[in-house]
Design brief:
Elements (H helix, E strand, L loop, with lengths): L6 E2 L3 E2 L35 H13 L7 H4 L12 H29 L9 H10 L8 H15 L9 H22 L12 H15 L6 H4 L9 H17 L1 H9 L3 E3 L6 E3 L1 H12 L1 H12 L10 E2 H10 L3 E2 L14 E2 L1 H9 L7 H9 L4 E2 L1 H12 L8 H19 L7 H9 L2 H9 L1 H12 L6 E2 H10 L15 H10 L11 H5 E2 L1 H14 L5 H6 L5 H13 L26 H16 L13 H16 L7
Parallel strand pairs: 6-7
Antiparallel strand pairs: 1-2, 3-4, 5-8, 9-10
Length: 638
Amino acid sequence: QRPCGARSPLLGTMPNDRPGTPKRPGSKNGSRPVTPSFRTPPPPGWKSREMREHGLKLYKSMGLKNVKPDAVLDKKGAAGKGKSEQVRQEELEKFFAEQEELQDETRAAFVRYDKDNSGKIDCEELYNMLSELSAFSNVKEPERKEMCDKVLEENDQDKDGLIDFSEFSKLYNQLLEEKESKEALTYKVPSIFGRALDEAESMVVKAMKPMLDNSIFADRRKEAAAKDYFDVASLRDKMFKADWARIDKKKSFVEFKKKYELAKLEKETGKVKNQPLGNFFKKTLREEYDMLCNCFTYFCCRSDECNFTCMSFDDFKEFAYCAGLREKEDIKEGSKTAKSHIVDLRALFKEINELEATTNKAKKAENDANNENAFFRFEFLECVMRLSMQFQKSEDVKLTLQGYMLFIGNTLKREAPVACLDRNVFRKDRLYTRDVMEVFARFQRELKRIFTLATGDPLRDLSQQQFIWLAERCGLIDRHLQSPEGLHHDELRIIHVWSQMMVADEFKGMTQYTTLTFIEFMEALGRISDVKDLASHAELKEHHLVSVLDYVEKTEFNVFSKRAKPPPIQREVVSCLWDDQPKSQSLAERIEMLLDYMFLMFAPDCGSVVLGTYDINKFTEMIDQECIDIHGELLWPK
């Protein structure tokens, strides 16, 4: 420490020994408290423009954030126009106060990392700092030491093999800013219609990470292509990049681009080069990409012979009708349908689906996997762009494309609301809570046995057919209710898809894209719980029922029977898949109700999870026997 008025080792004389220095808030007569040597005060004569710029350069060299000299200091700049000297002076005081606070935080961090209190950071301490600030997030273990040595060499300006405070300050603040910007991008969970989370929602999502890292969902980060618990924006960018690369190379799309002047053929090279209008199409498609991806998934799940990785002609036709188009061959003479809405959908479907001959091995493999009678996602996106020009009424192609995308969005919100929901919202609002994690952790053993029973192999994931078979086996289909109420095959197919994490490449990630891991299976059960309307603990007590199964049997028996007597429990089914209103009942409670019902379907004498009479031994005995009956052997340790 040094007394007031002593020379600073960094800047020289302290400002309080100069007349006219503004008072420090909370001090008497403008005097400053004793200041440690690590604090960087404003430079002497800091009212002059030259000195202020000198101080700002110093702060920048220290790596401190929020340094905006032109906006605050320059009297001739836009920010300085119309401002009095007093206002500019107040802004400057506030600016330096903020920088001092930041430097105090930096000093505290320096002390924390300086484990041996030597006053400098050695290589081992630097390694710990880089690890804590996520600098090694994409670096393999063997390469981390090499990276640490390189960072030390680049920032050790006096070449003593150590990092002093001034060197540390710049490095630390740079790493901290990179970490914050990376987290801001990672935890931006956009809606399919482009609505990013507001600040409060983003904070909630960020706060989930430490809890999820130590929960039953922890392995999801390792399994998922996003390396996260959500389908983050960076993954969707990779998805779009892969899809656009395939679209842009197709001969049919190249001809489309030439026709509407999205690209031009260069005479010198003989190559087709995108024009600004083509880049505009690409940008617009990216903006609507999330909405179109969900539309593709939703309409692929509509038919019973569903293969949700590709869209059949009937699925495509249903999408086109929802999007306001009509098939040419279905239009009768005298129809009042606008000509711009009539399209030869079958011819367009066939043209886009036509496979192109190639000698490239990777392209050949894609052609082998590609169904000639169905759209993959990239083909569907090409089709949407080509359909948009069907509505062209002016020479402004940009306006036509934007208008058509808006029309699709609004029409689908009305005609197919499920296609407008974002699968990540359920995870954020309902699934990733401590209560839900505790319920799944408590019954993990039973759920793994049910999962393996359905897959038939402990090393396999759960296909859609196996998932629907399991729902049928557990009696989860609401045959006594009519869609959209209750749970039916349509909802099960969508739940199966929504419970998966997205993959960057629909061809390379085909297996991962079409099956559920155990963690995704748990999410699927959570989604079923929000749809399947069962009795709560209070309702079981009120009606003197012994389990959720007892409630279902009595309710459905009265519904199916021809008796005039109403069911003993009259309940309005308020939970459905396309109801995105906040649920009043906690998901953890609904999952317990679902597990109560499922366990009793396997072992009727195992007791009730909800009422606390559940006996795991009876359940284990019954499901072990069923596994032997179905597969001929026990697929898990006794």
